[in-house]
């Protein structure tokens, strides 16, 4: 529990709750975890609806937002629709998968950035701040029933695979489009679950129900490298870099995954504790950054500038950076003449970052 001086107001800007949609579930789960940690928490839905739920039942409208509140936006949100003064960007899935990879250009460069995971080993653990939560619905239980056959799911597979060559048996039962309760019941009847979406939480649900989840491997990504892309990886580190507990990565990993199943419930309880640790760090970081003088030293934090812009510059050849810098100065000097002929977006980057690197 946090001290009273650290108690802050958090607003989660979220899609309406859908238990079959991971993004809305983790946003609501973060709200509940923050409440459990003694914070003042509200939901603001993207379509303005309110509803009873098990996570958080305090709702605000955009007009209720004030400068004392910390607003958390998922990565799918452009700009700052709530006009919040303190903004956190929570990247639940890598930019470019479900949204334009350049969406960060619509964000303020001093917005704080947290990641749900590292995404295809794109980011090293020391380059990002992990904010990781999970919610396990009480209906998810292993009923100890006899098992036979398999089931499979594609969900967002096309976002992660260029070509898919099905590995499930011909008589495997498709799960896409079914309700959570239906899927839980099927997981309690089947022996194997083939998942073509590598990051769906249904692999965890399957394991908790006693059904062996088998992830269709991502081309060019080893089992160890895939594990490193998961938000739970820091909980284990290199000492356990042999794969995700209870989840097979490809057909040759089934025996290892099956061996984990008897203790998977205990393992997920440990994961919940790890989740709480990431939330406590999140509370501490936001308190320090938004409500102390440390915000003026943004280089010490994971911000839009340090995570996205700086990374983009570091990947550029020095002569390209010099060329773009000179182009900016030419445009600034002759902008009245050039403005009708050059699209505004070409130089929008310089306007948003000129104070950082244009000297």
- Relative strand content: 5-15%
Uncertain runs: none
What strand order characterises the main sheet? 2-1-3-4-5
CATH architecture of the largest domain: 3-Layer(aba) Sandwich
Shape: globular
Number of beta strands: 10
Radius of gyration: 22 Å
Q: Helices and strands, in N-to-C order? A: EHEEEEEEHEHEHHEHHHHHH
Distance between the termini: 45 Å
**Helical content (DSSP H or I, runs of 4+):** 25-40%
Enumerate how many helices there are, as a single number: 11
Q: Largest sheet, if any? A: 5 strands, parallel
Number of domains: 3
- Average of pLDDT: 85
Structural class: alpha/beta
The third-level CATH topology of the largest domain is Rossmann fold
Describe this structure as you would to a colleague:
The structure is a single chain. The protein is α/β, with parallel strands linked by helices. It folds into three domains: 158 residues, Rossmann fold (3-Layer(aba) Sandwich); 117 residues, no CATH class; 40 residues, no CATH class.
At a glance:
The protein has 359 residues and is α/β, with parallel strands linked by helices. It is 32% helix and 12% strand.
Features:
359 residues; Rossmann fold; five-stranded parallel sheet
Task: Outline the secondary-structure elements.
Layout: E1 9-14, H1 22-36, E2 40-45, E3 69-74, E4 86-91, E5 112-115, E6 150-153, E7 173-174, H2 180-187, E8 192-195, H3 202-208, E9 212-215, H4 223-228, H5 233-236, E10 248-249, H6 254-260, H7 264-290, H8 304-314, H9 318-333, H10 335-338, H11 348-357
Parallel strand pairs: 1-2, 1-3, 3-4, 4-5, 6-7, 6-8, 8-9, 9-10
């Amino acid at each position: 529990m946090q001290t009273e001086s650290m108690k802050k107001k958090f607003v989660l800007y979220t899609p309406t709750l859908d238990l079959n949609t991971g993004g809305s579930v983790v946003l609501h789960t973060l709200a509940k975890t923050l409440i459990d940690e003694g914070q003042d928490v509200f939901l603001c839905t993207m379509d303005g609806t309110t509803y009873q739920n098990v996570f958080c039942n305090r709702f605000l409208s955009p007009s209720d937002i004030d400068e004392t509140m910390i607003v958390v936006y998922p990565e799918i949100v452009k700009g700052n629709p709530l006009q919040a003064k303190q903004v956190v960007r929570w990247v639940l899935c890598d930019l470019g998968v479900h949204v334009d990879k350049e969406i960060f250009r619509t964000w303020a460069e001093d917005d704080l950035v947290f990641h749900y995971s590292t995404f295809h080993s794109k980011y090293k653990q020391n380059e990002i701040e992990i904010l990781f939560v999970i919610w396990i619905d009480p209906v998810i239980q292993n009923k100890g029933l006899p098992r036979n056959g398999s089931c499979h799911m594609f969900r967002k597979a096309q976002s992660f695979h260029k070509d898919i060559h099905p590995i499930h048996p011909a008589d495997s039962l498709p799960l896409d489009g079914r309700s959570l309760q239906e899927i839980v019941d099927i997981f309690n009847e089947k022996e194997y679950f083939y998942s073509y979406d590598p990051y769906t939480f249904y692999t965890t649900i399957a394991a908790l129900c006693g059904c062996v989840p088998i992830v269709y491997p991502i081309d060019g990504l080893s089992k160890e490298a895939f594990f490193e892309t998961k938000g739970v990886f820091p909980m284990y580190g290199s000492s356990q870099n042999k794969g995700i507990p209870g989840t097979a990565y490809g057909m040759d990993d089934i025996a290892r995954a099956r061996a984990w199943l008897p203790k998977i419930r205990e393992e997920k309880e440990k994961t919940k504790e790890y989740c709480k640790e990431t939330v406590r760090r999140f509370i501490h970081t936001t308190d320090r950054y938004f409500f102390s003088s440390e915000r003026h030293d943004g280089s010490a934090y994971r911000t839009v500038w340090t995570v996205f812009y700086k990374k983009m510059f570091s990947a550029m050849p020095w002569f390209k950076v010099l060329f773009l810098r000179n182009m900016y100065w030419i445009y600034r000097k002759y902008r009245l003449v050039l403005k009708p002929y050059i699209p505004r977006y070409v130089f929008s980057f310089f306007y948003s970052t000129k104070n950082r690197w244009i000297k």
